[in-house]
Amino acid sequence: MRNYESGITYLLAAILAIFITGCGQETITIPSVVSVSPTQGETGVATNTTVTATFNKAMKSASITTGTFTVTASDGTAVAGTVTLSSLV
Fold first, then answer.
1. For the whole model, what pTM was predicted?
2. What is the residue-level pLDDT of the chain in tens, covering all 89 positions?
3. Do residues 54 and 35 touch, judged by C-beta distance below 8 A?
4. How far apart (Å, rounded) are the C-alpha atoms in residues 20 and 73?
């Protein structure tokens, strides 16, 4: 009976080792802004200037909203405006 229990233990250990080996780490790339226009810190920008930002990866339209993407003045206050995405995923 003892050999039977040892065999089951070794089998379960082998299955667990295979399971753990097969579970790799998922790599997640967080989007970041790679360029903006007008440039950050630029002064004297007209109030009707279109502000653009380019990301390092394609973005989903649902993730770019006035709640997730803001433009702020030099004093830190939010600038009113609309947000649109020119390239949809």
1. 0.58
2. 455 566 777 778 777 777 777 666 677 788 888 999 998 888 888 888 898 999 998 888 888 888 888 888 878 888 888 888 887 55
3. yes
4. 50
